[in-house]
Amino acid sequence: MKRHVLAGTIALIAATAALPAIQAVPAFAIDNIESTNAPDLTSVRAKIAAGDYQGARDELRGLAEDTQQADVYNLLGFTLRKTGDYRTSLTYYTKALELEPDHKAAREYLGELYVETGDMAKANDQLARLTTLCPNGCEERDDLAKAIAQKTVRQTGN
Asked: Whole-prediction pTM value?
């Protein structure tokens, strides 16, 4: 299963490498590679990489009906956030973290949701949690720290 997840991650990286860098923060979704009970999310990741958040969301909703799995809930939260449904996105990030409290991707995306909605205190809480989970650094912590820094610069104009 880990090999399958790794292959999916490599395919996602290859697919996104061909996309132009349109925005400051990349919009690819990651999930918790350590999960062993995740359904095949290859198709969902491809849709997300292509910017088809609604298509990915629809597919994930079907998966969420059949399984309670943190990666599914996390990616569903991600796609909902990307389509502007912050309230429902929060619900799915919360469900992911109820199942796996140390799910780094869900912590990152929840923090990014808080950045996008202007709740910087809660965004920093998620960053602190990721710092505990990744004392030597990790992509999720670095990405959230960057999102917080960018929002701070935009707010202060510096």
From this structure: 0.75
